[in-house]
Write a structure and sequence with these properties.
Structural class: mainly alpha
Number of strands: 0
Number of helices: 5
Oligomer: single chain
Radius of gyration: 11 Å
Order of helices and strands: HHHHH
CATH architecture: Orthogonal Bundle
Number of domains: 1
């Protein structure tokens, strides 16, 4: 699955993301709205990840869904 597919079906995948990263609120997921760069920034802020680590975690997650 690629990111365009995730973004296009964000409402569906938001629940899966919520399961993976439970510390992120519904409002924060709504602001991400399927935008990868915003999700990277949110992961950096919420978990203290480097940009590279956040991108890797997100890419691993996308491969699994």
């Amino acid at each position: 699955m690629n990111w365009d597919q995730v973004a296009g079906r964000w409402t569906e995948f938001k629940g899966k993301a919520r399961e993976m990263w439970g510390d992120i609120t519904d409002d924060e997921w709504d602001r991400v709205a399927g935008k990868r760069e915003q999700m990277v920034g949110l992961m950096q802020k919420k978990y203290g990840d480097s940009k590279e680590d956040a991108e890797r975690k997100i890419d691993d997650w996308v491969r699994k869904i």
